[in-house]
Amino acid sequence: MQELNRHHNNANVMDSESCTHQPVYFGVVNININERTIGSVDVWRCGACKKRFCEEKQLGIEAIADIVGMPHIEPDEKWGVLISKLQKGKDRWSLVRLPENGIIKHERIDDEIVDISVENYQVVEEGYWSFLIDDHINKAVEI
User: Fold this and answer.
1) Residues 68-82 pLDDT 10s
2) Residues 115-133: tens digit of each pLDDT
3) Residue 94 forms beta bridges with which residues?
4) Quick count: other Cβ atoms within 10 Å of Cβ 75?
5) pTM of the full structure
6) Which label site among 95, 97, 120, 134 has the fewest CB atoms less than 10 Å from its CB?
7) What residues have CB less than 8 Å from 92, skipping those under 6 apart?
């Protein structure tokens, strides 16, 4: 009988991969240049499993996004913003999925695709830098 009264901590934990996500708005990260907002990343969180989803919003861009709905991210990745030190204005940043360690592909403004090295969820390639969305929710980041 004693066993029936025990609560298992894992009983209420939802596996994010098997969850039927119920995203609710969680917050925003504003992207600024010279204290002027040029875009933002909307952050959504599943009410059941707490997994986060992100959506890039560039001011002045009215085209429909490539991905409809909540974009998928692997369990070993984190949402981040990649900033190119070589590009200007709205083309300077993009929302990316950062692995703990590895390579990400990035399409530059000249349509060339380059490999960018990542270590400990941070870009380590010369000419680029990055930050994690989770560290800046409901804040502005000056790029």
Assistant:
1) 567 778 989 999 999
2) 999 999 999 999 999 999 9
3) 82
4) 7
5) 0.81
6) 120
7) 33, 83, 84, 143
* Domain range annotation of the chain: 2-142
Average pLDDT over residues 102-126: 93
Q: Under 8 Å CB-to-CB from 63, ≥6 apart: which residues?
A: none
Report whether 54 contacts 28 (CB < 8 A).
Answer: no
Distances (CA, A) of 85 to 24, 89, 126: 33, 11, 9
